[in-house]
Please model this.
Amino acid sequence: MFKLAPLFGNGAVLARGKEIRVFGTADEGVRLTAELTAADGTLLAKAACTSAEGRFLLRFPPQRAQTGCTLTVTDGTMLIVSGNVAIGEVYFAGGQSNMELELQNADEGKVLIETHLDADLRYFNVPKKSLWNGDAMQAEGWSHWESIRPGYGKDMSAVAYFFACKLREKLNVPVGIIDCYWGGTSITCWMDEEALARTAEGQRYMSEYAAQCGDKTIEAWQAEEDKFQAEMAEWNGKVDALKKERPEVTWPDINRICGECPWHPPVGPGSPYRPAGLVETMTKRVVPATLTGMLFYQGEEDAWRTEHYEVLLSGYIARMRELFCDDALPFLNVQLPVFINATDKEDNHQWGVLRRAQELVTSQTANTGLACIIDCGEWDNIHPTDKRTPGERLCEQALTVLYGQKGAASPKATGKYTIGGVLTVTLDAPVAITRSGDECAEIAGADRVWHKADIVAEGDKLHLTSEAVPEPVYARYAHYNWCKVRLFGENGLPLAPFVLDN
Model:
């Protein structure tokens, strides 16, 4: 007996131009053979393998982009046939709530869902399960590929949707998205114990969580989880009713009328927020599928928990490349925008620190891209509903990193020098002050005490001054949790945040 993973069912999208890996479960020692045929019945490739340790893995040679293919797998007794299989680009979309935000809840979403039609844009939702039990196995059995058509797509990641739509326009090949995310999760939830054990920072997350859990049983955790979910459901009901009554209500008013969100998920052995949890119950359900690349939007949860996010992010990328059997797997990341809670008494720069970590990892890691959305944040709303902007900016990164095109990118700082009391930052493209907002720049002397700076933009140079810093040495821009940027390039994209402190 054998079972094909749902990822390879009807309507599946397989990655073009790379070895195609197809897998599932089987009794020990089962000999399996498979064929991949084109729309006209032409045999494209054959594969064979013998199952071991309850799993089987079939390997097909690289194929060109096409549609209407058929995948057949047999053990000589049972035959499984998957039709309407496409070969094109396959992206894994991961992260937390801003990647999780569904198309039905995004700007333009409801209108698009009623009218969009694209049979070659498809998505697969990995079931959101924090425990691998009977319920999770049943949910996995129901999981399947959906194509974009009227009435469908509402539960697809909005960021990934807009990314895929633009990529379809640019490449005109099938595009498949594997959605795998969970709101409120740390990056460590998506790293297995092997990856976390490689660094002191990963070990710290695991040990701190273990100390919080103590000897709590799964039953005790479940009781706490049920209570938490009931409180969240009650609060969400109040918020939904208020939004229906007052569609333009703001978050400060929501918090005042409905009360603060009762966000206190209990720790425990079944929590989706435990380190090394969801990688096992979700990510590894689709490992080692062949991917074109990865999309990632995460960091909000870790901004307050670590000053070494670059260690975790580097480890995550390395481990995903190992699990998906691709040492050069392209990784496209969304840099955090600006955000601050209305109740925050001061700006502690934590989001600025995390943005810098994201930029450092991108600059130091091959085949990576970083979509700058520093102009897209909303005050007191951590979930902006404009998801077209991050999705399309991710696509621009893809064009550059994967497809040999020059995608539109934010201007970036390239260096600095000081003459007199003026620190000049050199850029890789001209910028201008095109919107109202804050200066957002700071400079510091040798003492590294930062002060706000006045900005004069002159083409591909920024001249920064401050009466408090007569001999400036260092500069940084948009390093705050919250500010309103106003420097943009000729392509309309914002100047990327930078820290020049060496």
